[in-house]
Amino acid sequence: ENSASINAFNDVCGSCINVAVWSRSLVSKDQFSYMTLPDGQGGTYQTTKLGLILTTVPYGVKRTFRGIEHIRFEELPVGGDAQLLARVRTLTTATQKGFGAVSGFTALLMMMGEYVHNLEDRGEIKASELGTLFAQINALTAAEGLIASSVTFSYPRILRVMLYAVFILWLGLLSLTEIGPAVGYYSLLFVGLLSLSSIGLYSLSNRYANPFRIKSEDSTQTPLISIACKETELAIDGIFARHNRLTTTPRPTQSMLVF
């Protein structure tokens, strides 16, 4: 389950990067509205609203499956733009007019779709090319759904109780009928130590079953999810840092021409 969740999260990050690449390559005119934001290290960087949305998606997915009910979007990249922050708060907050709140991931997808449609309305992307972008968005939702199915699924609690009960009953009968009379009842001390070790390993495996709950300050395991979020953010920022249109067909370089 752990590896399946990590692989699905990598697909989420890859789909975000694909949306960034295709949006920069398909846009017919250089009409992206760029903004300059602090990079947190004393410098600045340039990005777009779509870039902020895409870089927020992995962080939003991570915090959702970590069990955080109310995501603080002001701490995420989307918080760098006041309009985007207000929009995501509106979508994730229930109103008195009967509009229910959506999840953070759904809100970001809605904002992404709105931005792509605005590109079409302004004539910056052809209608026939929208399918390419929405194919990547569909892949994004599929990967998020796979994470949800593997992380949120849990066996009924009664099964876990029965597992412990059967194990304790089996161990008790084995100790009284076989180990104790044959070896000596002092050996039950070693049996108890081995049993506690087995239970401890089982509890430890349950703790690490959800990779989204792993924090570097609380675990010796590498926080792969957090690393993937940061690398995706850097990749998308690098894509949108180029103001000129990207090409999907690279030019042959000198190294590519050498056989």
What features would you describe in this structure?
There is one protein chain. This protein has 259 residues and is mostly helical. Helices cover 60% and strands 3% of the residues. The chain has helices spanning 2-26, 49-65, 82-91, 104-121, 130-151, 157-183, 188-207, 224-240; strands spanning 35-38, 44-47. Strands 1-2 form a two-stranded antiparallel ribbon. A hairpin with a 5-residue loop joins strand 1 and strand 2 (44-47). Helix 1 (2-26) packs antiparallel against helix 5 (130-151) and helix 2 (49-65) runs antiparallel to helix 8. The longest helix has 27 residues, at 157-183.
List keywords for this structure.
single chain, 259 residues, mainly alpha, two-stranded antiparallel sheet, 8 helices
Topology readout:
Elements: H1 2-26, E1 35-38, E2 44-47, H2 49-65, H3 82-91, H4 104-121, H5 130-151, H6 157-183, H7 188-207, H8 224-240
Antiparallel strand pairs: 1-2
Helix pairs in contact: 1-2, 1-5, 1-8, 2-4, 2-8, 3-4, 4-5
How much of the polypeptide forms β-strand, as a percent range? under 5%
Quote the distance from N terminus to C terminus: 44 Å
**Total beta-strand segments:** 2
Quick one: overall form?
A: elongated
Instruction: Give the number of helices.
Output: 8
Which structural class do you get from the secondary structure elements? mainly alpha
What proportion of the residues is helical, as a percent range? 55-70%
Poorly predicted segments: 248-259
Q: Strands of the largest sheet, in order across it?
A: 1-2
How large, in whole angstroms, is the Cα Rg?
Answer: 25 Å
Main beta sheet: strand number and arrangement?
2 strands, antiparallel
What average pLDDT do the residues reach? Answer: 78
One letter per element, helices H and strands E, the order comes to HEEHHHHHHH
